[in-house]
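User:
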Amino acid sequence: MDQAELSPVNGSRVWRGPDTTARSDEWTHELSVTEIAELDEAVAQILSRGLDVLDIRKENFIIPELGRTLRRIQDILQNGFGFSLLRGIPVERYDIRQAAIAYFGIGAHLGEAVSQNAKGHALGHVYNLGFDPTLPTARGYQSANKLNFHTDPTDLVGLMCLRKAKSGGLSSIVSAGTVYNTMLEQRPDLVQVLTETLYRDRRGEVPEGREPWYRFPVFNFHEGRLTTNYVRSTIEKAQRFPDVPRLTDLQREAFALIEKTTADPDLYLNMSFEPGDVQVLNNHYILHSRTAYEDYPEPERRRHLLRLWLACDEGPTLPAPYYEFMDKTASGRPNGYLMPGVTLTAPLDAEDGGPGASEQRLADAAV
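Assistant: Predicted structure:
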């Protein structure tokens, strides 16, 4: 797209944090007594039938009133703010299996759970494993470090809080449309740079027949709609490959402007998670980050979130670069990190190393 053709975007997805905070009743829902009872019964039914977490479908997780709420949330995610917060899941009286069933069942009413890493984890654990985020295959959610604003690859990302940190760990979100508009007003030349191809590191999660990197612009226009995908660390880490073009000063200036813009308190919105909260974001319209946090020393008290990546039939039609990175689900949506020959799993142990575990163990051994 030529710079002269770039124009501001508008609509419900273009918002500013302070204004949206004042409208929290529009994107927050507290579960009713009836909805909690439905959830309890649906969890009990899955347990009594001996079903695995991965066997849960919308059809066998019966939550009539909560299901209607989730349909309203789906509309907010696709046509409204692009994010929602569901509160009141009774995690304090659920064990880890019950919590996973409840969360996976809620997710099944919003989309299809897809793989979050090369191990095929459809249920992820956001938990401080002390991993070094500078390692090429490391993922930021495995540490307590601050995370920069970024997007995840799939249509929706959901987080359910089981335990909060001792301090810190705020979730920060910002409208990608507002970031784009703000940058366009200041530096349209840098916005143009971000509509062009950037090379990104697959971080060791390489599908058969693919290169260890992929090509993906930050700002993508398709059928008149803007979708955004940005993870600076994968762009910078791709520079380790000699066949990847070197980043230019102008590209790095564009990255710096994204980061300056997303860090503007007039634009972003902060959320503090309480146990039982479920945050769902539309990755195409929202960038998210997290502040650093201090954890409890005891493993059983550490901050612990369950994560879902969901492919969603209601999502926007996506341009080709999305599918250079990922394959498609049967319905044609981004399929996460599912590798050939890998079967989806739903691990219940937060200590399962996930991506980067082997490399981290080697690094620890070298110390």
